[in-house]
Write a structure and sequence with these properties.
Length: 751
């Protein structure tokens, strides 16, 4: 089968008519002259005329052939064939190498990633001299290491050799799409994509989109080779969640951590040991899980104690298996010495149990009276009439419980307090003046994360109620309740609550696909934008929803501080949440987030952007960020403290590896910061694509089961195609032109 790289050039074949037209226009014309002696030459003239006509026709044919051959050569025809050699077509290719952390799977000698890089080297060897190739690293994002196809194969080999496994998960679709779009813009008869991956099913979750891409590539004559490396593994344990279970991290008090271990393999695992270590020191606590069945997850609690106010890197680790990348998970926390809490109780009640603060004060200080003085939470409770005598900067967190309104001086004090890093938690109630809060705190000062709307429900009717959402917790403060072992937030009943109205024109709301029913709720996440009038104010985020989709708890950052707004009361007047087991841990997690100044920002997902606000005196300083030691990557990241939304902030986005990063600020020895990036546990499910799906892929792409590295080159050689014919056609045109010139010279001689 012959195909043409430049089919438009074939229209140039019409130029073959030019010598024909010239020939016709220049035919010899004769004038008849009566001459008696002409009859003696008649025979000779007729003989010469036949010879000249044959010579002209021969030259005409040669000239037409020259033009036709030149046009065909410029159209660059190619013969698809298994032949190879000097005439083989030069290809434009893209090599896509999967560097997600499932590629770290070991076979006892080498990792799958090592085999994949060997496969890439064989691909380069199989390319024809003069071909060009780009190189992509593929995970849940695409990193174009060599964005444009290059003929420098040494550079290709160097980049492949230096490629490293990331801590990211896999998504084949974006990389395939980008490679196809690149090749569409290239002029070549041979366009090839080589995807080298372990065949993990999770990476092909966009199955329908990938199938459409493969079919599109086939129609556009883009040949795709999919090389599966590595073998199926039947055993794998991984850490699927690691978090701080204790809301606050005080010094000299034990802090509880929760480690969830999942069996992603096909066999039951016994006596699974889980270690907890701090700052790469020997384990400080150990737990053993007796049995984990295939597909089962189990959670253990581990404890550590910290002795100074500092940043700590905490690591949970399993005994090693063939996929070590998911056996270790880390987080970073910032400890505190003590917490000073102020409660302003707007409705003290006729007796302590009826006050707004009764349950809250016991949740904040959950110790016997004899131990209150030694407890790290230092609590002060006042009434609104005493508020003018309070200096807010003396407290880390302020709770407002059903406080009707404030004087202008107190409003200004709140504004200043929050911008300096204070924490404010608001519980409304019967006395709360919605119009005042909405005007002064929401519209004018923009302190509230949401507008307080009408009351929903009736506190006197306990037959009808709302509940918190049951699952799909997105916000870091509540995501631990995604694990049933952490308890149940949805057990609480809310008989009355204010509607919290979030301005949809200034935020981007992302809803889950789960319908809002009595047993499940939509999960709402509010992503920050820069549309706020005040650059010191972030957009609101929903912490919790009710099961009808209505926001229940909303928060936002305000300067260096933070505001959390509940929609119902802090006591049992409108709900029974304070008597539920989840009340205390939620309050402590909120206090912990407000106290530590963005503790959850110290632990992010791999690939997310690390953002951390710092003091004003650090503005403009250079920042050096050292990657996790386990990556064997000595290259340090560089950034600086810049103004973001009006605040001095460290921002860093090169978080491709899981583990603990060290943030060193130039000229500072006591203000160094740490943060951790955690991998996506979905990548730990190393089940491969089913045989049925592999067969479907084979309909549109060439699948190479590269279980044996040595066989790959032979497989690729068998699939080579494309002998370009432009060179022989051009040479033949040159020969024809030389013959035509020689014959024309010869025929022009006098006979």
């Amino acid at each position: 089968m012959i195909s043409f790289l430049n089919p438009i050039m074939l229209f140039g074949a019409a130029a073959v008519t030019i010598p024909i037209i010239i020939h016709l226009l220049n035919r010899r014309k004769y004038q008849r002259v009566t001459w008696a002696a002409m009859r003696f030459l008649k025979v000779s003239v007729e003989q010469n005329q036949r010879r000249i006509r044959l010579e002209d026709i021969l030259l005409l044919i040669l000239r037409c052939l020259v033009i036709l051959l030149v046009v065909l050569a410029m159209a660059r025809p190619a013969l698809k064939s298994n032949m190879s050699g000097v005439l083989s077509a030069k290809s434009v290719s893209v090599i896509i190498l999967d560097n997600s952390y499932s590629m770290a799977l070991e076979d006892g000698v080498n990792t799958v990633f090592f085999k994949a890089k060997k496969a890439c080297e064989d691909i380069i060897t199989s390319l024809q001299p003069g071909s060009s190739c780009a190189f992509y690293l593929c995970s849940d994002t695409t990193r174009a290491v060599i964005a444009e196809p290059t003929q420098d194969f040494n550079l290709l080999r160097k980049e492949i050799k230096e490629a490293k496994i990331s801590g990211r998960s896999t998504d084949i679709f974006p990389s395939l799409k980008q490679a196809i779009e690149l090749l569409r813009s290239k002029a070549s008869i041979r366009k090839e994509i080589f995807l080298v991956t372990d065949g993990q099913a999770f990476g092909w979750r966009n199955w329908e989109n990938i199938r459409q891409l493969l079919q599109t590539a086939k129609r556009e004559n883009i040949q795709i080779f999919i090389i599966f490396v590595g073998e199926n593994e039947e055993r794998n344990l991984g850490i699927s969640r690691f978090s701080i279970a204790t809301g606050v991290c005080p010094i000299n008090h034990p802090v509880r951590f929760e480690v969830q271990v999942t069996n992603y393999g096909l066999h039951e695992e016994n006596d699974v040991k889980v270690n907890l270590s701090v700052d790469n020191n020997p384990p400080v606590d150990t737990a053993v899980i007796d049995t984990i069945k295939p597909g089962e997850s189990k959670t253990v609690s581990l404890f550590a104690k910290f002795y100074k106010d500092d940043f700590y890197g905490v690591t949970a680790k399993l005994s090693g298996d063939r996929l070590p990348a998911d056996d270790t998970q880390s987080l970073v926390l910032k400890t505190i010495k003590e917490a000073r809490i102020l409660i302003i109780d707007g409705n003290p009640g006729s007796e302590p149990r009826l006050s707004q603060s009764f349950y809250l004060k016991h949740a904040i200080v959950p110790v016997p009276p004899s131990e209150v003085d030694n407890y790290f939470m230092k609590l002060t409770i006042i009434e609104p009439r005493e508020i003018n005598n309070v200096r807010f900067d003396d407290f880390d967190v302020v709770f407002l419980l059903d406080v009707p309104e404030f004087s202008p001086q107190i409003l200004s004090a709140f504004d200043f307090y929050l911008k300096r890093g204070g924490g404010l938690v608001i519980f409304p109630g019967r006395q709360t003046r919605q119009d005042y809060y909405n005007l002064e705190l929401f519209e004018k000062r923009k302190i509230l994360p949401a507008k307080i709307g009408k009351m929903i429900g009736n506190p006197d009717n306990t037959e009808q109620f709302l509940r918190f959402q049951e699952r799909n917790y997105v916000h870091p403060l509540v995501e631990i309740w995604n694990d049933p072992a952490s308890g149940n937030l949805a057990s609480a009943r809310f008989f009355a609550a204010y509607e919290l109205i979030i301005p949809t024109n200034s935020v981007s709301m992302v809803l889950s696909n789960i319908p809002a029913t009595d047993s499940s709720a939509k999960s709402v996440n509010l992503r920050r934008t820069n549309s706020s009038d005040d650059n010191n104010i972030s957009e609101p985020r929903v912490i919790l929803n009710y099961n009808n989709g209505m926001p229940a708890v909303v928060e936002k950052e305000f300067g260096f501080g933070r505001v959390v707004l509940f929609s119902s009361t802090a006591n049992t007047e409108w709900n029974d949440f304070p008597v539920r087991p989840s009340y205390l841990p939620l309050i402590h997690r909120i206090i912990g987030a407000l106290l530590t100044g963005r503790n959850e920002n110290l632990t992010i997902k791999v690939g997310d952007i690390f953002v951390y606000k710092v003091e004003n005196d650090l503005l403009g300083k250079d920042v050096v960020i050292a990657p996790p030691v386990s990556t064997t990557n000595s290259i340090r990241g560089l950034t600086r403290v810049d103004l973001i939304n009006g605040l001095p902030t460290i921002r860093y986005d090169e978080t491709d590896y899981s583990g603990i990063y060290n943030v060193m600020i130039s000229g500072e020895t006591t203000k160094n910061i740490r943060f951790a990036a955690q991998f996506d546990p979905s990548e730990s499910d190393i089940v491969h694509l089913s045989k049925e799906k592999v067969n479907l892929i084979s309909e549109d792409a060439k699948v190479v089961e590269n279980r044996d590295i040595s066989s790959l080159r032979q497989e690729l050689e068998k699939n080579k195609y494309g002998i370009e014919l432009w060179l022989p056609l051009a040479l033949l045109a040159l020969v024809m032109a030389m013959v035509e010139a020689g014959l024309a010279q010869y025929f022009s001689k006098t006979k």
